[in-house]
């Protein structure tokens, strides 16, 4: 596939994609919102990795326990737009003058800002929380929950290629989220078992050769099932009268 890969800081990717310099990009949802580029990019897919929270953090042993207590204080962050929007909404909710809270930009080591006296609180990304705890901070509010997203330009130079790559990402995401469940069942219970395994669109049903001693017709059913539910689904199929329940991983697919 004739694709050039360009490695850029996450904060720059929304601008490069939004201005049409790159057709596709992978960056955090927080970066797209901070760059205010949703008018210029399409949010194609949540890639479900790099999950974290943009949170308001204060000294663990300090006087602040509610975000409203920070109105009129100094807030240090790398996300000045998101922090400013959050505190402007908070000021309106509390009936305070808007713009009364000072938002100060720091590019790195934001968690050290409170201890060094640069600000009263910070707004920063939290993944495991270990860095926050090490800095003696605690979270009192969540501004945004974010993860890595696939974005595209609204006017890509190679739209067919964008669609192909997007489809491949969708296939991998679906393959990671689903398994293929195959089982046999008497035709009389098909309506019941299809309620358990309806599939993404519908299940595949094939007739089985009737064996000596069978009193009714049997069918083989194949259906995509969410991986997180498969244990419960197998139990329910067994209770409903299905047999030979098999589960297979999906390496890739197109949905």
UniProtKB/TrEMBL annotation:
Chief location category: cytoplasm
Entry annotated with the keyword Cytoplasm: yes
Record SUPFAM superfamilies: GlnB-like, Periplasmic binding protein-like II
Keyword line: Amino-acid biosynthesis, ATP-binding, Cytoplasm, Glycosyltransferase, Histidine biosynthesis, Nucleotide-binding, Transferase
Gene3D superfamilies for the chain: 3.30.70.120, Periplasmic binding protein-like II (3.40.190.10)
BP terms from Gene Ontology: L-histidine biosynthetic process
Any one GO MF annotation of this record: ATP binding
Job description of the protein: Catalyzes the condensation of ATP and 5-phosphoribose 1-diphosphate to form N'-(5'-phosphoribosyl)-ATP (PR-ATP). Has a crucial role in the pathway because the rate of histidine biosynthesis seems to be controlled primarily by regulation of the enzymatic activity.
Listed name of the protein: ATP phosphoribosyltransferase
Provenance organism: Australozyma saopauloensis
